[in-house]
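Request:
You are asked to prepare a plain-text protein record giving the amino acid sequence and the backbone structure tokens, at your earliest convenience.
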Amino acid sequence: MSIANKQTLATAKNLIIILSSILCVCLKLQPSHINCHPDTNSPLGNITISPNLAILPDKLCFVWISIRDTNLRKFNLPKYHRYGIELRTTKFSSHALICILLSGDIATNPGPNTAPSTGLNVLYLNARSIKAFVPLDDDPSRKICKMSILQELVYSNDYDVVSICETWLNDSVMSAEILTGYNIYRKDRPGRTGGGVLIAVKSDIRSSHRKDLERDNIEFAVVELVKDYNKSVILYTVYLPELQQDELHQLNSSLQENSESASVVVVGDFNLPTLNWSPDESSLEHNWGSTENNEFCILMKDNFLQQFIKGPTHIAGNKLDLLLSNWPEMIEHVSTLTPKESTFPSDHYLVNFSIRLKFKRARRVQRKAYNYKRADFQDLHRLLQNATLDIPLSDNINISWSRWKDLFLAAVEKCVPVKVIKDTNSPPWIDGEIRHLMRKKYRALKNYRKTRSEERKKKLRSLSNSMKILVRRKHRDYLHKIEGSFSENPKLFWNYHKALLHHRSGVVSIITSNEITAKTPAEKAELFNTYFCSVFTSPSAVSSLPSSPIRSDIEISDIELTVEEVSACLSSLDTSKATGPDGIPARILKECSTEIAPSLCTLFNHSLRIGRFPAEWKNADVTPVHKKDNKEPAENYRPISLLPIVSKVMERCVCNRFYSHVSHLITSLQHGFMRNRSCVTQLLSVLHSIGKSLDQNTQTDILYLDFAKAFDCVDHVILIEKLKWYGVTGNLLNWFTDYLSDRSQRVVIEGVASRYLPVTSGVPQGSIVGPLLFVIFINDLPDIIQEQTRTGLFADDTKLYRSVKSPSDCESLQHDISNLNNWSHNSNMKFNASKCKVLTITRKKSPVITDYRLGNVILQRAHQEKDLGIIVKSNLSWDSHIFSIVSKANKMLGILKRTCPLIRDTKVRRTLYLTLVKSKLCYATEVWSPANVKLQVALERVQRRATRWILKSKVGEMSYEDRLKTLNLLPLTYDREIRDLVLAYKCIFGHTDLNIEHFVSFIHHNRTRTQNPSLMLKSPYCRTSTFQGSFFNRIVKTWNNVGKIASPEKFASLTIFKSFLHVTYTALVNSTFNVDMACTWSLTRDCPCHRS
């Protein structure tokens, strides 16, 4: 017999002996009856007990206690419900033995619980606006946002859950700025100021937004707090300002939708001051008054709710805020704090309570990273110089790469130590000193709850005040550090604001896809990876690809890189980029670029020579990033891929060479991923043509087409065939073929990685060569479109537009759509017909309207559509777009005012404004710059508010003109003119790939009074102000005026020209600009008061 079998047999014998002993003891026990007594101490005056438990032998007591009693305790019984049994045994030893056997679950009379709570610490408050500003306690002349006070309150008490009524929030406030380290679930009041509710749950607690339990017309939010063994607590936060019977009825119906065994907690402001509570304030007595009171009584009884707050909750002495639950044993340590005690400005008391259940916290993800502060880079340079990284090359590129990697990492490990980093959800200013004081405070709180003496109460208050002061001081010190790092360490400065503005939500309790639910990190990683890979397509047969003529007579079969090229790419690496699956960070590659460039160049050339790409470079780590809407569906996430940085260095070198071969073969209609082309150049060329038709009173139909997962669905077989059209042959063709084949990806989430799954289609996301390959793949699309129908391309963003004078033009456009649909099928790609739109540009009262079809789907018509970030309307007006960007800019300015009140440095504030606010007002101004004064004023008001914030100036203290001079800023009207002139310079002098002669005409005679006659433009004839305001028409007058005042030397280079413009417009601010006179808002002042 084997050793394992002997051990198994011995274990079985021991188990039999133990069971026999227990059975013998049970047989010795004498049967007795359970005596049930009414609980005379209970206010209810009676008890309820299951009839089948009236008689029970002693020997089955342990069965009842371990099973039946546990089940009973799972029911949500009234607060004063009593149940139990009396055990009577004939022998004391038997009684003692039963107690020992049952010591794992003694529930009949457990006594007081002195163990530390492992539940949730919850804060509830009625904020009366958390975005309002109130005077500082220590300096009433200065104001601080209540959001900052809320953060100090929450962080100093380390609350797990925060419920807030009357948030007064709207879409101008980002959830990320409210509480760092918390998942925010909110329901704002739409359309008007006030109201709103919010629930914030620590990111390490599994939670989900239960929108299915919410109601559109009632202000309450519902969150499910998931605990161990898939149990959960349903938390409602309610605000009922103008209470009506229907509102309570809908809240009741929501509560009724929970399962009978659900644990429900309801907290909020019910505004029912006339309710008649029982002496202990836990239940309602007779309420024969208002209909609302009666409806609320029904709600409490229907859901077996009890109330836990003692005394008033409003400074006027009323009880408006209530805490309800259907499980009394779950709620403990309920207390209230006046606004003065809590230092939070409100007219309601703050409510603290605990949910006495054990919740499993998400583990902190640990990862290893190089400790650059302790690195010895000089020694690393010396080791790499002496080491032989020129490894022997093998026909197996994987072996060659593995040898180089091992040698390089061996040298790195000797000079750069490794540290373990634990991800944290707390703000960066919460340090060890704060956590130490927090532990002292919790010990004092625990002692006070044991014995509520005045001495312990005084000590607890003292520690609480010290905690608030310390958190406030640490926060201010951290902001001062951020402010001081602006010049010395800008990375720290921008990381702080990036984390604030681009906050990624924490742990999501469940992820769903195709009716599959994932709960554990491993399950979620697998589910995400399965969904992301489901969009890939299978390769098609080459025979299905239509024949096309060879587009290049010049073949490219080999590329040989130089050391200088590799070194330049290594030196230009962005060290902030994340490390790929190979574990080699960009910081070390850049630091050692000189030493490793020769050996890497040899490895890269060997890869190109044999036409093979290392297998490890084909693996991608994917991180899911939430896009929009609910966080539970996997469909609402997009994948972000991380590739090995060394592979991207090689791709950059190859792409630079390959681009020069293929760039002139790419259609001029493609503006994506092409040098000297951009969103602006594409929009200008398309909208100028459409505006010209509108000026001639001709209708134009635009079809905005959307490919479904375009970059992920590129067919590798078809792409390789198309590369042959462009002269790619030999080793380079083999290299591209191997580069695309046998790729795989895995999803990494919460520190857990899924298994690798194959990537069967698409260009590699996050790669350097991928975008250029996609442009080549889609390059033949315009060939199938008729000449009278024009195409606009920016990567996969495609639009067709055609002048419509009769129904036959619509039929021709429909024919082009059908051809395009056939092209997509032949290319193994699909359109997302639900996102394709039709926009008719016209001034006619009776335009030609036709239903366009993509396959069997009728395309949806729109009155306006967002085109490359610009809102295009059916009349080519820009009011909708301008109002949209003004709203976004004001929102961002409000965020800065709320989150940076302690940053006082003017230079820092100015940079924040230019980077985060003004950038939103300046994107593609060449396309939409308004001629309407009202729209100009709307844009300028944003900067007027911003300059007051930067200079900490109140309204009326300093004029707008003086603020501009102090900050060395230009009015936005001047800024837009400068951008117009710079783009015109680029077009005229060939800095952009846009033929200026297709849009403007030059004056070829010398009868002009100007220093630059060859640069003068002809004034166009326009019938409408809309077309007159388009870029290529409005720029003529401004450009000619610059030509009159600028010497030829000012046009020598783009840098000189920009400098000249800045000096010229700055002089206008100092001499001419008047915010109240619109005629001074331009270099061209064609008005009676300025006309000479």
Notes: The chain has a mean pLDDT of 85.
